[in-house]
Amino acid sequence: MALTPELLAYYEQGREHDRLRTGRGRLEFWRTQDVLRRVLPPAPARVLDVGGGTGVHAEWLVADGYTVELLDPIPAHVEQAARLPGVTARTGDARDLPVPDASADAVLLLGPLYHLAHRDDRVRALAEARRAARPGGVVAAATINRHAAVLDTVYLGLYQHEPERQAAHSAAADGIMFSPGHGFTAYFHHPDDVPGEFADAGLPAAARHGLEGAFWLYGDVGEWLDDPARRELLLGAQRSMESDPSLLGVSGHMLTVARRPR
């Protein structure tokens, strides 16, 4: 991942941290938590949170009793995450992890694949996660779905603007998303391409989970998330259809999980 000035500027604003803690971004956060709590080994297993940002997931993992080491290429992220009680944080690149072989019970890539436009780099990052995981350990990676920008720009009312519309359809065509508003490139996966990247990294039998379903496009989703009882119903509704192949691409994000072969 090339740390361009535009990418650094975006993440140094703390926008990813806030995105997952406010508004409809909470749906992605809580669904990620929901899936991980079902697939991770019991605490106090050791979790390597690669590209963990400011520690938005590391924080609850520590609260659940896990031992968490966070790696991120953005120095400001590492500085902020290191202030969280129980979180060890340092700089690192997903494609060249500074950790020993088989040193983690689970390795999370909840962001790095968003910014690796070349397939070889994505497979390399997944292979590094496999190397760092113990035999039988979990590797989980988040991806942005191919049509997310088209869906999101319509939801946000931006689709009628030519630059946003062209960028969204370009991403739908080849996965390369250049954000006119932020000035950096992201990569959007087709859901059917992800298991092949996992397999080429030595991680067969990957299971896919659509995180938000269609619910992130509902105008009143924030009201559901604000109400604990309705929120649990919403999370359960998406859980019931999270791996239906016909619905995977409607989610903004997908979480794919595999285990390092023994």
Automatic annotation (TrEMBL):
<feature type="domain" description="Methyltransferase type 11">
    <location>
        <begin position="48"/>
        <end position="140"/>
    </location>
</feature>
<dbReference type="GO" id="GO:0102208">
    <property type="term" value="F:2-polyprenyl-6-hydroxyphenol methylase activity"/>
</dbReference>
<dbReference type="Pfam" id="PF08241">
    <property type="entry name" value="Methyltransf_11"/>
</dbReference>
<dbReference type="InterPro" id="IPR029063">
    <property type="entry name" value="SAM-dependent_MTases_sf"/>
</dbReference>
<dbReference type="GO" id="GO:0032259">
    <property type="term" value="P:methylation"/>
</dbReference>
<protein>
    <submittedName>
        <fullName>Class I SAM-dependent methyltransferase</fullName>
        <ecNumber>2.1.1.222</ecNumber>
        <ecNumber>2.1.1.64</ecNumber>
    </submittedName>
</protein>
<dbReference type="InterPro" id="IPR013216">
    <property type="entry name" value="Methyltransf_11"/>
</dbReference>
<keyword id="KW-0808">Transferase</keyword>
<dbReference type="GO" id="GO:0061542">
    <property type="term" value="F:3-demethylubiquinol 3-O-methyltransferase activity"/>
</dbReference>
<keyword id="KW-0489">Methyltransferase</keyword>
